[in-house]
Each structure stands twice: as C-alpha cells, then as structure tokens.
Amino acid sequence: TLVASPRSTLVMVRDQGAVVGASTALPLADEEEDFRRPFLAAGLDPGHFYYFGESLLLISHRGRGLGHEFFDRREAAARRHGFARTCFCAVVRPQDHPRRPSDYRSLEPFWEGRGYRAEPGLATEYRWQDLDESQESPKPMQFWLRHLDR
C-alpha cells in the first residue's frame, strides 16, 4: 500500500551512508482495510486522516531527537497533502510481556507531548509473527489521533 500511494512519505535517517532509521506515512484511505475499518465503524471518514506507519531506529541512534524529526516530517507531509488530522496505532502489550526489555520506557508521554491522544474504542488487531512465535498471531492495536491545528 505504501508504494502504491502517490501521497505516501518515507523519512530515512542515514549515518555515514548507512541507514539507521526510517519512518513511513500515507493517507489512511490508502491503507489496508484492517486499519480503516475501526474508523468507519466509529463514523470517522478515513479520507480525513494521514496515517503514520512504522518508525524504526537503531538503539545506538535513539535519544538524539530523531523521534521528533520523524513526527515533524510526517506532520509536514500531512499538511502538504491537505490533511488536518493524523493518526497512528500502537501495539498494546501487558506490563509483564516476556519480550518487554527491563529498561523499557513507554512512548505514551512522548506522543501525548506532541498532542496525540489515545482514542477510546478506536482499536484494531493486526497479525504478525513475533520473534518467539512459530506463526503469526493477532496483536491488539490502539489508535492515537491528533488535530494538527491544535
């Protein structure tokens, strides 16, 4: 879906020529049905939202403000494409999840500081295979929304 969308965005971070991070975004209307369905069920038009997909950054490059840069650039792309609302979804895992690092810090304060709010009842499931799984399984995902002019 990302490659097929003419309004998609890819933010890439390089360090001495090597890719150390990337972040994606595209109109929610161009995203897979699993991501659009909760919006339709809640009476929200997916065509009004710019969806932020994956953000990946090597551990060695975290804590340098690049997370803010990912959001700044994707929010700028949303505005450039005429969107006033942005969204993303985050996997919901229990506090005692076996793959949670001992030094884990929630990103929720970071997202809230940028004006995003978890939207109660706006959730989906997406399937993938975790490293400790032998096959794909559904993972609960919570949507976070922001109105860019606020």
Write the SSE topology.
Blueprint: E1 9-15, E2 18-27, H1 33-41, E3 49-57, H2 66-80, E4 85-91, H3 108-113, E5 117-128, E6 137-147
Parallel strand pairs: 3-4
Antiparallel strand pairs: 1-2, 2-3, 4-6, 5-6
List keywords for this structure.
single chain, 150 residues, alpha+beta, Aminopeptidase, 6-stranded mixed sheet, 6 strands
The overall pLDDT, averaged over residues, is: 93
Q: Could you name the CATH topology?
A: Aminopeptidase
CATH class: Alpha Beta
> Largest beta sheet, briefly?
6 strands, mixed
Strand content: 35-45%
What's the architecture in CATH terms?
Answer: 3-Layer(aba) Sandwich
Number of helices: 3
Could you explain the architecture of this structure?
With 150 residues, the chain is α+β, with helices and mostly antiparallel strands. Helices cover 20% and strands 37% of the residues. The protein has three helices and six strands, in the order ββαβαβαββ. It has helices spanning 33-41, 66-80, 108-113; strands spanning 9-15, 18-27, 49-57, 85-91, 117-128, 137-147.
Concise synopsis of the structure shown:
The protein is α+β, with helices and mostly antiparallel strands.
